[in-house]
Amino acid sequence: MEMCEACAQHYKDTPRGEEEIRSLVHRLNRIVGQVNGIKKMIEENRYCGEVLVQVSAVESAMRSFGYLVLEEHMNTCVSEKIRAGDENIIKETVELVKRLS
């Protein structure tokens, strides 16, 4: 995939496979469904405790999704950059891990 040099930092060098994309999009669609469910609960004036249980479920789903993307990032982007001699990727990855916590 060719792109301008200024944009290259925003795209993966190794593209995701079709099955991986399908799986990640499926997970995101489920999360969107959960968020829409919470919205409906608020509109229906549902009990706060029930809403909070669903908020917790969405947070957990997003965290799991983030860890899947992080694992892929480490297996592809990070390892490729380290092999190419770019050790700056380590600092970037540590910052990304901190953001997921």
Can you describe this structure?
This protein is mainly alpha-helical and 101 residues long. The protein is built from 4 helices and no strands. Helix 2 runs antiparallel to helix 3 and helix 3 runs antiparallel to helix 4 (88-100). The two termini are 32 Å apart. The protein is elongated and about 55 Å long. The chain has one domain (19-100): Metal-sensitive repressor, helix protomer (Methane Monooxygenase Hydroxylase, Chain G, domain 1, Up-down Bundle). 78% of the residues lie in helices and 0% in strands.
Number of helices: 4
Alpha-beta content class = mainly alpha
Radius of gyration over alpha carbons?
Answer: 18 Å
Within the CATH hierarchy, at the fold level, what is the topology?
Answer: Methane Monooxygenase Hydroxylase, Chain G, domain 1
Question: What is the annotated CATH architecture?
Answer: Up-down Bundle
Number of strands: 0
Instruction: Please provide the ordered H/E string of secondary-structure elements.
Output: HHHH
Mean of all residue-level pLDDT scores: 91
How would you describe the shape?
elongated
Kindly state the percentage of residues in helix: over 70%
CATH superfamily: Metal-sensitive repressor, helix protomer
Work out the strand percent.
Answer: under 5%
Give the distance, in angstroms, between the N- and C-terminal Cα atoms.
32 Å
Would you state the CATH class? Answer: Mainly Alpha
Characterize the biggest β-sheet: none
Q: Which stretches are low in confidence, meaning pLDDT under 50 for 5 or more residues running?
A: none
Compute the number of structural domains: 1
